[in-house]
């Protein structure tokens, strides 16, 4: 009852003070996060239970947020009059409302921010104003806390943008299950009937060879579907998405942040836990370092990586494999998972002893990531399927030679000149989860062995490929390039609808 009262109040107030209307729910929202933070830090330092309960509470306030947002969108005469003087004549009427899991961390979140920042920083006289909204996943406090201050204030600023539904292009940047009507509890996207908006765009991607029928239906409800690669254009159209709706919009990479000239290598040895092999006798001895970064899931091909690495190398080779990983619906016990995998495999322990494997499973802040790449000789990811492959692109921007599976999203940017594309043995069936029955790639263990050995023995060639990789990333995916692609696509939609 209380919250209903508050909500009434905020809507009433908003009629005379339009700016507080959007500010208010957002402020309330973060206020509850603040309380949660205090609760966690003061009383329940390790309690996931309280964290979850509070997040649920925060989350359920979405209905208030939604209703207020809709109230906001509904142009009443009174509101229009009061807001008119606040909007300078020169401001373009149109809005692009970007709805994504912007407070959640994870793939769609970082991708969402990379587009928003690209547009904000590189489109000088936009024909539209930019607005944002959290949608599609739970918000994460750790993530919000870790955001730089300027992004946090930008989040508040863009969340206040004043838009009319009929002048707004909505971008639903999330998995199609979150689109209106959502299959789970989230602010629906679009936040009202599809036809109330100027246009609605779905931005999504998958890692297998096809789409589920329900996802196809949801895509076809959109005016447009933006996908990152040619691979997706072909899998979406092949699964039944209307070809006239599917548009390729590649992903930007911050090549100024991921610039090898700006960083000293991270001390990998200090962060890594040795899980296989013996500690080095002489810790100063320079190892040839293979680095892999991924969420711990079968799709990422960690089994292929372990098998290839352990069969190809022994301690005598002077190599080291660092796996920077974090849990994905699993616990953190990666060391045991690796040892167990090796024990149950046919891999024989070399006479010279295992080539060392290190796991880094602590949280590595975004700001330290370039130094991780800088500390490696090669980046390797024998994934079974990728949407885009963000760590691969980051490594390439850092001029690191890359070995990655030549299938799915990464075929958009892997070439013989800029990397070591890993051949696929065959396609295999996805055995569990929501994509069960789809196909994805089985990267070749024997070819991966050959490539890892080859890179070690051809360091100059590998460096040349790394340099070419950075050139390609700058030329094709730097934020100003992608901002232009985005702005042009938005312009075409504004002119056509
Ligand atoms: C949107 O609706 C408002 C109010 O009904 C109207 O004044 C405005 O011209 C419309 N904009 C467009 C682009 O149709
Ligand atoms: C990688 O895959 C693409 C797309 O299937 C193909 O055109 C290309 O030749 C492949 N590259 C290598 C090195 O196999």
Task: Report what the structure shows.
α1 (2-16) runs antiparallel to α2 (18-43), α2 runs antiparallel to α3 (48-60) and α6 (107-122) packs across α18 (479-496). This protein starts with a helix and ends with a helix. α10 links the parallel β5 and β6. It has helices at residues 2-16, 18-43, 48-60, 62-73, 77-83, 107-122, 141-146, 149-159, 213-221, 230-239, 268-271, 302-312, 334-344, 369-374, 390-397, 445-457, 459-477, 479-496; strands at residues 94-100, 128-134, 168-173, 199-203, 224-227, 246-248, 273-276, 288-296, 319-327, 357-360, 378-381, 402-405, 420-422, 424-429, 439-443. A 7-stranded mixed sheet has the order 7-10-9-8-11-12-13, sandwiched between helices. Strands 2-1-3-4-5-6 form a 6-stranded parallel sheet, with helices on both faces. A two-stranded antiparallel sheet has the order 14-15. With 497 residues, it is an alpha/beta fold. The protein is globular, with a radius of gyration of 24 Å. It is built from 18 helices and 15 strands. The chain has 3 domains: 1-86; 87-252 and 478-497, 3-Layer(aba) Sandwich (Rossmann fold), CATH 3.40.50.2000; 260-477, Rossmann fold (3-Layer(aba) Sandwich), CATH 3.40.50.2000. One 2-acetamido-2-deoxy-beta-D-glucopyranose (NAG) is lined by residues 406, 411, 416, 421, 423. Residues 445-472 form a coiled coil. Keywords: Coiled coil, Membrane, Transmembrane, Transmembrane helix. The chain crosses the membrane at residues 26-44.
